[in-house]
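Recap quiz, item 2
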Amino acid sequence: MRVLLGAAFAVLAGAGLARAEVASGDTSGKRIALSNNFAGNSWRQSMLKSWEETASKAVKAGIVAEAPSFTTAENQATEQAAQIQNMILEGFDAIVVDAASPTALNGTIKEACDAGVVVVSFDGIVTEPCAWRIVIDFAGMGEAQVDYLAKRLPDGGKLLEIRGLAGVSVDDEIHKGIVEGVEKHEGFEIAGSVHGDWTQTVAQREVAGLLPTLPKIDAVVTQGGDGYGAAQAFKAAGRDMPLIIMGNRSDELAWWKAQRDQNGYETMSLSIAPAAAQVGFWTAQQILAGSDVPKDLLLPTLVVEQADLDKWIARTPEGGVTNATYTQEWTAEMIDAVKNGKPVPATPSE
Amino acid sequence: MSTTLARRLRALLPAIALALLLGAIFWLQPRAMSYFGLNLLLNLSIPIVFATLSQMLVLTIGDLDLGIGGFVSFVACVAVTLLADSPAFGVLVLAGAVLAYALVGALVQLRRLPAIVVTLGMSFVWFGLAVIVLPSPGGTTPAWLQAALRLKTPLVPLPIVVAAAVAAVAWFLMMRTSFGAVLRGAGGNPVAVARAGWSLLTIRATLYALAGCMGVLSGLTLAGLSTSADANIALRYTLLSIAGAILGGSEFTGGRVSPVGAVLGALVMTLAASFLAFLRLNPDWQIGVQGAILILILALRAGLGRLERA
């Protein structure tokens, strides 16, 4: 009894310090799996590595029993559905999902929930109400680009839009945000648009193909993984270098730094930190530990500004994406902020 | 003597492969050995079974359908939009899609076009139509369809009941009726069948229409399972269905098909992926190993085929 009281007191004292409460229920016997639908680009590779880091530390510290990751060979919803059904059969307590489709997995997700499995989706989220969603404000990410451009180019200008993979919801969302931004700020106009598939080589090829038909481009809005390719296409065509928004990839930041040192080139860069997987992990762990977590959580974007370029380059692995580390405490703080309707904490820079 | 034995072994090959896979899965994951487990393990095989039968019907006459994945995606998209909002119109569209399949068959026959090229072209048409019907992932499968696939059949889980029933019907139709014999004959020896007074045009159009019907069933059951759809949902069914049908004993050259084998082949293709997942095999290797399993079974079959002729 005394121990219980003591524990309760400790929790109260912790709350009194205005720090977020980390649910401390025992999860040492729990097993959490990551279901991932695609590993073919640098973001996903970093994401898997981030998961691996956090998972192995948590297993070593005895926080969870096991936290393996599984990736489907082909980026197909039906295959991922089968994968998740296998995870239910294997008896995982929680499944963290980066989904191939926001809706096509719903039947399977419902089955998981019915079997008592906690399902947390992030990045590629699912709409099934029984699952938790770590929502990334992709539309806001598109809009923020035009907001920044409005500051840099007060008279507006002609934009080239590089989109992602056609038919994927993330591409649609970012595009919507960009269109909204263009409508909000006078003088901007999308002069052309290509699908760069979030891949530098594809972006370069597509932009190079479209460039001859375009007027002078003032700025390029992107989705990440395509800014460097676009810059190469502009350079090869001998066109004036526009203001290209970058997406936190190492080649993009390196190019930006070289341009800055050479001619004072200024831009901004933003993307989602691949460590979003860690937020997924800790959210699942907190739910298993008994924390009352709202179904819709929020993840901030990671914005690299001109002033902090060097600092973030140091945190960007060669061939990877600028990353951060989300801890259990950060996740608990974020959950707390969402619960109380407060702005979510910024991406930790340490 | 050894010829009949080889023939029998060859027919049994898909069943043996299925039994081995199931045994291995039960050993790795005893939890799968229950009503709930089998249902989870096999329910996504229902649409694959239908897609494989569709492919088998086209294989009957020596053609290959590269558009089935796009077609099933299209049907799933119609199921979660038109069929849910205005059922009558939805049914009409699906009937039109089956008719389109029959027309593709007629076109292949009339213009002597390679089916592989026509159906590849059609795959883009179906994908485009799917995007028009459902531009971004979503939609809701009609409640009756969802309920139908959640049906808890007594004793034996739904996927097994469906697979058995479908195999029995297809076997009877293709192997035990004169209608089926003519269809198969048109693939095996088209000249003879034409000389006997049958219209190859009608036969090919019929086979394609039947394949379209199977494609519709595949799309509907897939939509029922996933509760919603997107335009990419079934693209991998093209390869899965070909692999399943061939594994089940059909020949690329036509004439020789096995409905029961095709159903078993579809189940093997579904289970092979689960088996590799339970093995905790690195996903980079999984697709390669899946291919290796397929090659192994086909090599065995080719070996038995040689014995058969010997």
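The interface with chain B takes residues 39, 68, 70-74, 76-79, 81-83, 85-86, 88-91, 101-108, 110-111, 115, 127, 167, 169, 172 of chain A (CB under 8 Å).
The longest strand of chain A covers residues 188-195.
End of item.
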